[in-house]
Design brief:
The chain is an alpha+beta fold and about 230 residues long. The N and C termini lie far apart (about 35 Å). The relative contact order is 0.24.
Length: about 230
């Protein structure tokens, strides 16, 4: 399904991760933030080299809160770690110790933001041949964390997967359910980025980062969109 068609059906998907493979064989990743509260809206994504951070735009009542401000993307050697919270730091730490993506997330839980209990989503992307990636979601089920992992060892060119935190808007937000949604990946980063940004609800969208990485020579092309600018 085209990414803009899929996202336009969701007025409030929360935070989302897209990982895929461009038609010509580039590794593709995207991370977006949507939010409704004042503090959620008071954010922007800041890119510093290979690190992407969710930071406050101006004064913040919750400065230092890892549920709102965190490293969304980081690179460890030939691996990208993408997350909607500080569990990305846990994954990085475990990998540095020779442990696995699954090991790291088994030590993590959903967010303690009652009544929503926002799922923690994450991705691990290998930036070398053969190209592989994994997605994960940790959500609350019967009062306990339920962890699901999805590994893609032979991804299709021109295709990818999307996972996000919420099904849609409501007084009590329902968590994303099922497997990651299959989406079409454009070869042109500008086209793909614009499709995502324009499809996100104008009142709720906050920020978006898209990255295309050439697996042959490591060349990186990126786009970043922020509702606010410093």
């Amino acid at each position: 399904m085209e990414i803009d068609e899929l996202l336009s059906e969701k007025n409030y998907p929360g935070r989302g991760i897209i990982v895929g493979f461009s038609p010509q064989g580039r590794a593709v990743s995207a991370y977006f933030i949507t939010g409704r509260s004042e503090n959620s809206q008071n954010r922007l994504l800041v890119l510093e080299g290979d690190t992407l951070k969710a930071e406050p735009f101006g004064p913040s009542k919750d400065k230092g809160n890892p549920l709102i401000y965190y490293t969304a993307l980081q690179q460890l050697d030939d691996t990208l770690i993408i997350s909607n919270g500080d569990h990305g730091d846990v994954v990085c730490s475990y990998l540095q110790k020779g442990k696995t993506f699954e090991d790291a997330l088994k030590s993590c839980s959903y967010e303690p933001d009652e009544p929503h209990y926002t799922p923690r989503i994450s991705a691990l992307v290998s930036l070398k041949e053969p190209y592989t990636y994994s997605l994960s979601i940790i959500k609350r089920s019967e009062g306990k964390p339920r962890r699901k992992f999805f590994k893609y060892s032979d991804p299709t060119r021109g295709g990818g997967q999307l996972v996000h935190t919420y099904k849609g808007e409501g007084s009590s937000l329902a968590s994303f359910s099922g497997s990651p949604r299959e989406v079409t990946i454009s070869e042109d980063i500008e086209t793909f980025s614009q499709k995502i940004w324009k499809a996100l609800d104008k009142d709720n969208r906050i920020a978006l980062h898209v990255r295309y990485t050439d697996l042959a020579d490591g060349t990186v092309e990126q786009r970043i969109f922020n509702k606010h600018t410093r």
